[in-house]
C-alpha cells in the first residue's frame, strides 16, 4: 500500500509538472508577450474610457483620474509620435547596456570563469559544499555565467571526491539560480530592477522617484549571501545527497584546476580592483570629493548614479586579467569584447522596445494609477494587511515566475501594478522590490520554463541518462522550500528590527 501511495504521489507530481510545462509552453516569448500586452492595454483603455471609469486622485484632492483612450484620434497620435521616445526612454535599456560593457570584458577575458573555478577548487574538503553554493550566489556578478560554468563544475568536483555528482550539480544550481538576487556586490540586476521601480513610482511621487537609489536593497541582499550559503549547504548535505544515495556510474569528468598563469592573472585583477576602489573612493569620501554632494554620502551623486562606477569596477580588473593571461593583447581586443557583449544583448534590446511601449501605455492611460487605487481599496476592504499581505504578494510573484523566466520581464509587468498598491499601504518601493526579488529567486530552481533549465538537465544526463524534468524539480524542491522559509523569516526579523535595507533607503515603511 505504501508503495502504491508513493507511486500515486509521484504520478500526481508528474501530472502537475506536465500541466505547468504545457501551460507555460503555450505562452509567447517575452518579446511577443509585451507586444500583446501593449495591444491589450490599448483595447482595455478604449473599453474603460467608453464606460467613463474614473477614481478620485489621492495625490490631488478634488481631482479625478480618467482613462485615456489609446484607440481614439488623440491616443493613436500618441502611439505613433512616441514609439521611438518610449523605447529610448525605457530606463533599464541604457542602464543594463552600460553595466554589461564592463561585465562583458570581465567575462570574455576569462576573469569570471577563473575566479569561480579558483573559489571552488581551493577550499578545504569540509567546506566544498558551502563554497559551491557561495560561488553560485556570487556568480550573478556575471549575469548567467554561473549556469554554464559552475553547475557542471560542481558535478565534476563532487564526483572527483567520491560523492554523488548530481548533489554537486544541485548545490551549484541552487546557489546560481536560487540565490540569484543576493550578492556581496551590486550586479546588473540592481540597476535593472531599480529603474523599473523608479518608473512605477514616478506617476505617483516624482520627487520620491528621483531619490531612488539603485543600491536600495544592498544591505539586505549582502547579508542574504550568507543565509543562502548556510541553508543551501544544509539541504545538500542532509537532504539531497542522502536521498540520491551512492553514485555507481562511470562518468566523472575531469576537474580543471587553475594554471599558474590564471592564478597570476587573478592576483593582478584583485590588486587592480583594490586600487580602483581606492581611487573611486576619493570621489566621495573626502569633503572635497567631486561626487560627494552637499548632503550625506548615501544620497550623494556617487551613490545615486552607480552604473558608471560598476562599469569601471568590472572593466579594469577584466582588462588587467586579460593582459596578464594573454587573452587581451591590445585595445582592439577590448573593443571586440565590447562589441561581442552588445551582440549578445540583441534580444534584450528587442525586448526593451516592446516593454518600453507597454510601460509607457500603462502610464499614459492612467490604468496603472486606477488599478493601484482600486486594488488598494479592495485589499483594504478585505482587511488583509501586514505580514499576510506580504505573504500573498510573495505567493503571487512565485506563481508568475513558474511561467515567465526573466526577472526584468516580470518586474516590468508587475512593478506598475504592485509598487503603487504597496505604497498605498505605506510600504516603500524599495521594500516591494526586495520582496519581489526573494519570491523570484526562490522559485527559479523549480521552474521548467527557466531559460537554463534544459541546460541543467543536459549536464545532469551525463551522470544519469534517465533524468528528466520531474527528477530535477524533485531534487530542487527542498532548496526552494528551505530558501523561501529562511528568507521570509529573515525578512520579517529585519522588518521588526527596523534595519535599513539599503543605503539611503531607510526601513520598510514610508
Automatic annotation (TrEMBL):
Coiled coil: none annotated. InterPro entries: AbgT (IPR004697). The chain crosses the membrane at residues 31-56, 145-162, 169-189, 218-236, 265-285, 305-324, 345-363, 383-404, 411-429, 441-460, 472-497. GO terms for molecular function: secondary active p-aminobenzoyl-glutamate transmembrane transporter activity. It comes from the Bacteria. Keywords: Membrane, Transmembrane, Transmembrane helix. GO terms for biological process: p-aminobenzoyl-glutamate transmembrane transport. This is AbgT family transporter. It comes from Paenibacillus agilis. The lineage of its organism: Bacteria, Bacillati, Bacillota, Bacilli, Bacillales.
Amino acid at each position: 500500500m505504501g508503495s502504491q501511495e508513493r507511486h500515486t504521489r509521484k504520478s500526481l507530481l508528474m501530472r502537475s509538472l506536465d500541466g505547468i510545462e504545457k501551460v507555460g509552453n503555450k505562452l509567447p516569448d517575452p518579446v511577443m508577450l509585451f507586444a500583446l500586452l501593449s495591444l491589450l492595454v490599448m483595447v482595455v483603455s478604449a473599453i474603460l474610457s467608453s464606460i467613463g471609469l474614473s477614481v478620485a486622485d489621492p495625490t490631488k484632492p478634488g481631482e479625478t483620474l480618467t482613462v485615456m483612450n489609446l484607440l481614439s484620434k488623440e491616443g493613436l497620435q500618441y502611439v505613433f509620435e512616441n514609439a521611438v521616445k518610449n523605447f529610448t526612454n525605457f530606463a533599464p535599456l541604457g542602464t543594463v547596456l552600460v553595466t554589461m560593457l564592463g561585465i562583458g570584458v570581465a567575462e570574455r577575458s576569462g576573469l569570471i570563469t577563473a575566479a569561480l573555478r579558483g573559489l571552488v577548487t581551493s577550499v578545504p574538503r569540509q567546506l566544498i559544499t558551502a563554497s559551491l553554493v557561495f560561488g553560485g550566489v556570487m556568480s550573478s556578478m556575471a549575469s548567467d555565467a554561473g549556469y554554464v560554468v559552475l553547475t557542471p563544475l560542481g558535478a565534476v568536483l563532487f564526483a572527483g571526491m567520491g560523492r554523488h555528482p548530481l548533489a554537486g550539480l544541485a548545490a551549484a544550481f541552487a546557489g546560481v539560480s536560487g540565490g540569484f538576487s543576493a550578492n556581496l556586490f551590486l550586479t546588473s540586476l540592481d540597476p535593472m530592477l531599480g529603474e523599473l521601480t523608479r518608473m512605477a513610482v514616478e506617476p505617483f511621487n516624482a520627487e520620491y522617484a528621483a531619490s531612488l537609489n539603485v543600491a536600495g536593497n544592498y544591505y539586505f541582499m549582502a547579508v542574504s549571501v550568507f543565509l543562502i550559503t548556510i541553508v543551501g549547504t544544509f539541504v545538500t548535505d542532509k537532504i539531497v545527497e542522502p536521498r540520491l544515495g551512492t553514485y555507481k556510474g562511470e562518468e566523472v569528468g575531469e576537474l580543471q584546476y587553475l594554471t599558474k598563469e590564471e592564478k597570476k592573472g587573478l592576483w593582478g585583477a584583485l590588486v587592480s580592483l583594490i586600487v580602483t576602489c581606492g581611487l573611486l573612493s576619493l570621489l566621495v569620501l573626502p569633503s572635497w570629493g567631486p561626487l560627494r554632494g552637499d548632503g550625506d554620502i548615501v544620497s550623494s551623486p556617487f551613490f545615486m548614479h552607480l552604473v558608471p562606477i560598476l562599469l569601471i569596477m568590472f572593466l579594469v580588473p577584466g582588462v588587467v586579467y586579460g593582459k596578464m593571461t594573454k587573452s587581451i593583447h591590445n585595445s582592439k581586443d577590448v573593443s571586440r569584447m565590447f562589441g561581442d557583449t552588445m551582440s549578445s544583448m540583441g534580444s534584450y534590446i528587442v525586448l526593451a522596445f516592446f516593454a518600453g511601449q507597454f510601460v509607457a501605455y500603462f502610464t499614459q492611460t492612467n490604468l496603472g494609477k486606477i488599478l493601484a487605487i482600486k486594488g488598494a481599496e479592495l485589499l483594504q476592504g478585505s482587511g488583509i494587511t501586514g505580514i499576510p499581505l506580504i505573504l500573498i504578494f510573495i505567493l503571487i510573484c512565485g506563481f508568475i515566475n513558474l511561467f515567465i523566466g526573466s526577472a526584468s520581464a516580470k518586474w516590468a509587468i508587475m512593478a506598475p501594478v504592485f509598487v503603487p498598491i504597496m505604497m498605498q499601504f505605506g510600504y516603500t518601493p524599495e521594500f516591494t522590490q526586495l520582496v519581489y526579488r526573494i519570491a523570484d529567486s526562490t522559485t527559479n530552481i523549480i521552474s521548467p520554463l527557466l531559460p537554463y533549465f534544459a541546460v541543467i538537465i543536459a549536464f545532469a544526463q551525463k551522470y544519469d541518462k534517465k533524468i528528466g524534468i520531474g527528477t530535477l524539480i524533485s531534487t530542487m524542491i527542498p532548496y526552494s522550500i528551505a530558501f523561501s522559509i529562511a528568507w521570509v523569516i529573515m525578512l520579517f526579523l529585519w522588518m521588526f528590527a527596523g534595519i535599513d535595507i539599503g543605503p539611503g533607503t531607510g526601513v520598510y515603511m514610508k
